[in-house]
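User: Look at the shape:
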Amino acid sequence: MTDEPIRTFLDAVHSGDPERMQAVLAADVVLNSPILDEPIVGSGPATAVLGLLSSIIDDLTFGEVLTGEIHVAVHLTGTVDAHPIEAVDRLEFDPAGRVRTMTVLARPLAAVVALQNRLAPTLGAPALALVPEGAGGPGASV
């Protein structure tokens, strides 16, 4: 895989420009998110989520890029509501160089929950909350 589709994708996401982001996504792109059970399908909905992410994640920095035949993994860091976040985006490109699938893996949990809380109203999902140990959550002793 050449660097051009990867660089075009990273530049588009970093720009926050919805038209540039949508242009690098396949029409039937599948976005697998750590904060939703079901994938986001289609370039319109995926572009909307990527646009939200670029406005929510501060100091978004793309780091190392690992490339294969048609897959790429991009390491990124940033902050969400003062929580440092680290993620890896696994991308699969179609023959035209557009993203066909994108799977996002993120950590630590506090940052993922903060991100989910910022996205939940727009995505129509209930906000998640961290439950402190011993507060009656799953696995709590009785």
Q: What stands out?
A: The radius of gyration is 16 Å. The first strand starts at residue 25 and ends at 32.
